[in-house]
């Protein structure tokens, strides 16, 4: 859908910000541009909507050279979300979102109706529509930025570090929301970040840029983690890439041990040898009691949970983080489904490699 063909960009007097870039993004997929600061990610993104013009080469959208389309008209077919939400401070949230539909000729009423729908799509309360941007939290402003980018229903969304100004908890929430939105909207998204974890979670395909605007690798995240093309990419994706790659391996076929879990209210008759898994009344894990200790107040919490059907990374992490050394598997309702130990997960990893 978006294609770069031998694209180079040199700003006045400088060396290349982007050097001979060729890549094709997939329609309806998220393509992430990642790399250290100054390696040409933003420049590449902005050449898609002609905010920056290439020095050489061609950027194509659906096979048409973007240089042949008037820039203003081209930009209206692409939503653009940036790090600072870029909202107009003197317009209400609703009017901010309605800006592009108005430019596209929608009536004020129709544009506002569309804006109202979009508030809901991005998970914001209708009454926030009457506020001004300064009266919103950073995370809410970013959601409005996403709503505004979606307002004209463009097939392409360009996102430049859209979530980097918010705290990690809100960022994770916004990332999840974006994936959920994307499942319904199936936009073609180009997403810039310098955060490799964000790239790996978000991207259907990831373009890793190196210094000098050189594309070092362009592949699905699991492939980059498994087989980085060179030392730069290996170093950039980090030392624990082997562990992170397990996040892309489904944990099917793991044999669970039955869990002799006991509800917190019924500890009286519980055997005292070994660690004991304690649950709440609904059968959800509440923590572990160490060997010989059966007082409910001594429960040790902590330990991640392995949700059945998730990845080998979560399975192994549940083991590594468990006070008892056994990972707790839970079903979709969060109830204890069994226990898993390190040997079982490692055997499964080994079987995956040989199979
Ligand atoms: N308008 C400009 N004029 C001159 N040089 C520029 C201009 N914009 C960017 N550059 C230079 O081009 C190079 C690439 O910049 P770009 O913003 O594309 O990188 P980036 O990978 O997005 O960086 P960051 O992660 O820091 O935002 C940098 O060396 C930068 O200084």
From TrEMBL:
<dbReference type="Pfam" id="PF00005">
    <property type="entry name" value="ABC_tran"/>
</dbReference>
<keyword id="KW-0813">Transport</keyword>
<dbReference type="GO" id="GO:0005524">
    <property type="term" value="F:ATP binding"/>
</dbReference>
<feature type="domain" description="ABC transporter">
    <location>
        <begin position="2"/>
        <end position="237"/>
    </location>
</feature>
<comment type="similarity">
    <text>Belongs to the ABC transporter superfamily.</text>
</comment>
<keyword id="KW-0067">ATP-binding</keyword>
<dbReference type="InterPro" id="IPR017871">
    <property type="entry name" value="ABC_transporter-like_CS"/>
</dbReference>
<dbReference type="InterPro" id="IPR003593">
    <property type="entry name" value="AAA+_ATPase"/>
</dbReference>
<keyword id="KW-0547">Nucleotide-binding</keyword>
<protein>
    <submittedName>
        <fullName>ATP-binding cassette domain-containing protein</fullName>
    </submittedName>
</protein>
<dbReference type="InterPro" id="IPR003439">
    <property type="entry name" value="ABC_transporter-like_ATP-bd"/>
</dbReference>
<dbReference type="InterPro" id="IPR027417">
    <property type="entry name" value="P-loop_NTPase"/>
</dbReference>
């Amino acid at each position: 859908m978006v294609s770069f063909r031998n694209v180079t960009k040199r700003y006045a007097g400088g060396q290349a910000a982007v050097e001979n870039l060729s890549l094709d993004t997939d329609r309806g997929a998220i393509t992430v541009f990642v790399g250290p600061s100054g390696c040409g990610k933003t420049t590449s993104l902005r050449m898609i909507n002609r905010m920056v013009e290439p020095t050489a080469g061609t950027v194509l959208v659906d096979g048409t050279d973007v240089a042949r389309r008037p820039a203003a008209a081209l930009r209206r077919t692409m939503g653009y979300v940036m790090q600072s939400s870029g909202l107009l401070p003197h317009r209400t949230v609703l009017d901010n979102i309605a800006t592009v539909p108005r430019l596209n000729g929608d009536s004020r009423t129709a544009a506002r109706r569309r804006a109202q729908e979009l508030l809901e799509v991005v998970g914001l309360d209708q009454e926030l529509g009457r506020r001004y941007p300064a009266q919103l939290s950073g995370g809410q402003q970013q959601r409005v930025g996403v709503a505004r980018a979606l307002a004209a229903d463009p097939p392409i969304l360009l996102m430049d570090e859209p979530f980097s100004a918010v705290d990690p908890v809100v960022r994770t929430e916004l990332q999840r929301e974006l994936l959920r939105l994307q499942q319904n909207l199936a936009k073609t998204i180009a997403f810039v970040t310098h955060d490799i974890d964000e790239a790996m979670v978000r991207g259907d395909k990831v373009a890793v840029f190196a210094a000098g605007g050189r594309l070092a690798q362009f592949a699905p995240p699991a492939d980059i983690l498994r087989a980085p093309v060179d030392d730069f990419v290996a170093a950039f994706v980090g030392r624990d890439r082997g562990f992170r790659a397990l996040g892309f391996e489904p944990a099917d076929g793991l044999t669970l041990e039955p869990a002799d879990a006991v509800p917190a209210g019924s500890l009286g008759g519980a055997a005292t040898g070994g660690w004991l898994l304690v649950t709440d009344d609904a059968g959800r894990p509440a923590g572990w009691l160490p060997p010989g200790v059966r007082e409910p107040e001594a429960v040790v919490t902590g330990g991640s949970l392995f949700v059945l059907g998730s990845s080998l990374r979560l399975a192994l992490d549940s083991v590594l983080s468990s006070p008892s050394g056994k990972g707790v598997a839970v079903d979709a309702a969060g109830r204890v489904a069994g226990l898993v130990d390190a040997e079982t997960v490692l055997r499964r990893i080994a079987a995956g490699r040989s199979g």
